[in-house]
Every structure is written in structure tokens, then in C-alpha cells.
Amino acid sequence: MSKPAAGDVATRLIFENERVKVWEMLLDPGESSDLHTHTMDYLLCILEGESVDADRDDGSTIHLPVETGDVFYIPHGATETAINRSDKRYREILIELK
Question: Domain total for the chain?
Fold first, then answer.
């Protein structure tokens, strides 16, 4: 079994209590996040951008078209790198549910 990736799930932790962790993810065009593992279920709240890709540890890629105001529920378990392959800045609030 592979060791979980140790990078942060987003750019900056902005809040944490006993129930949630709230992060901001900001990716300019061409930027990528750390390789990371989602150990909790989470919500993505899209603030700006047109898409984001998740390059998974199994070699697959998920392309997620987005619009401002979209909210997505994502179950825990994925190991991935988020990449902005669009020409617009991507920004989200990621809420991890403890």
C-alpha cells in the first residue's frame, strides 16, 4: 500500500475547529497544488474560474468545468494534484468535514 501524500489540500488554511477545516485554493493559469490525499469528505465552493483538473495518483485525470457559485461534494480517499490548465485564475473555498 502506498504512503499517503503529505502536501496540503489547498493553498492556505483559513479556519479550523473541531468540526471543519476551511481552505482557500488559488491557482493562476498553469499552476498546480501540492500532491495531497483527501482524508476527509469535503465541499468545493467555486469563487472564480472555468475549470480545474485533478491528476490522480492512478494516472487518470478528472476535468471539472466550473462556474462561480458552484458547490461540489467530494468523498474522501483521492490522492491528486489540482492543476489549472485554463487561461483564467481558479479560486475556491474547500471545506473539509471532520
Answer: 1
Residue 43 burial by CB count (10 A; 0-12/13-18/19+): exposed, middle or buried?
A: middle
DSSP 81: E
| In-domain check, residue 44 | yes
Place of cell 504512503: 3
CA 36/CA 28 separation, integer angstroms:
18
Cell reading at 44: 468545493
Over 60: is that where the pLDDT of 1 sits? Answer: no
Number of neighbours of residue 46 by Cβ within 10 angstroms: 20
pTM: 0.90
